[in-house]
Amino acid sequence: MLLSLYSLSFSFLHHFLFSMENKYLNILSFCFSNTICGLLIVSWLARNIIHTNGLTTTLAWRRKTRKKKNQDDENKMSLLDLPDLTLDCILEKLSPSELCAMTFVCSELRDKCVSDHLWKKHMENKWGRLMGDAAIKEWKTHVATLMACLKNSNPSSYRSNTQQWRSRLAANLKPFSWLKTNHGCHNRGSSSSSPIDSVMYWYSNLESGKFWFPAQVYNRENGHVGFMMSCYDAKVRYDNKTNTFQARYSAHGRRAAEENVTWQRLRPALVETESRDLHVSDCLQGLRPGDHFEIQWRRTKEFPYGWWFGVVGHLQHCGGEENCRCISDENVVMEFRQFRPESPWKTTVLNRKDHRETGNEVSGFYGGVKKLGTEEEVSTWKRLWPSQVLD
């Protein structure tokens, strides 16, 4: 069988060989004198003849398909082809983590996704309630310090670094990766440094817990009996894993700390009155029985003030609700109804005209007074009311 196939092949190529130039005859004669070489040559020629038309057709189909694909790609619309207003409306719907992810798509989207106007909404939605005047002032001071640190560490590159802060921001922030970002002064001039003058940077510092900001904490130290129905100044930072806060309190002779402080127990700190400053009372003349108030109180003069919740009561000689003349008296009764009647902290009497700080080492010292003007303020205190009367 093998010999028959070889003879047929040799006959088929006989005429073809005569048309070849003489210098190739010796090579071909050698190949066909060897059975294996001859079979390989015949096989190659057969495949070439059989598939020539098919190969041509395949190449033509591929060229046609590639051309159609290129045309389809040209007809596709990119996200960046949208009008700016439409694109901004889309980006405004994204969450903070999604905005961070979009910064890695391309440089144009990166510049858009780190814009302050997009992050102001997220800042207001999550942090606006706690970012009072004191916290904002603290942040501005923090930024100014870091800017000075950057400028002093590498003055020659300060201008270029400031102009390119958007690019550096996207290079550092990944979705939820800001928890590991180092925002120290060292290496501020390097290309890997993050910006410090953007709302996104502010947001990331709050989320990561790197920024301690001033706030006030209700019922401090997990509702310690000595602090029930009070609100004290503290420095707090956020714990992203538990969605709670860590608080640090400043007190005479010790520094107290507390974990797992919930959002409901926090409110903005007051910038106009520090914890050791006496608040100027401007509401005493108008207080009448039943009004809700907060008053500064401290155990000794070495301690900072806390704000304590109370209700205006009636004077002892008052005839009651129908014949009440307490509003015209020069004194006003301040009641703290969370305490028992026999408690030394149950009531105190203040002079409406010349009240400053009053008290003693036994009952403590009472400072400035604020009248609560909204139902929300009162309801917040009532939610924190102790389950039993205090001694």
TrEMBL record:
Among SUPFAM superfamilies, the record links this protein to: F-box domain (SSF81383)
Task: List, for all copies, the residue spans of the domain called F-box.
Answer: 76-122
PROSITE patterns linked to this entry: FBOX (PS50181)
* Superkingdom classification of source: Eukaryota
Q: SMART domains recorded for this chain?
A: FBOX
Q: Does the keyword Lyase belong to this entry?
A: no
Task: List the keywords (alphabetical).
Answer: Membrane, Transmembrane, Transmembrane helix
Kindly list the residue ranges recorded as spanning the membrane. Answer: 24-46
- What Pfam families does the record point to? F-box (PF00646)
Q: Which intervals of the chain form a coiled coil?
A: none
Its recorded name reads: F-box domain-containing protein
Tell me what organism the protein belongs to: Brassica rapa subsp. trilocularis
Name the gene behind this protein. Answer: A05p003270.1_BraROA
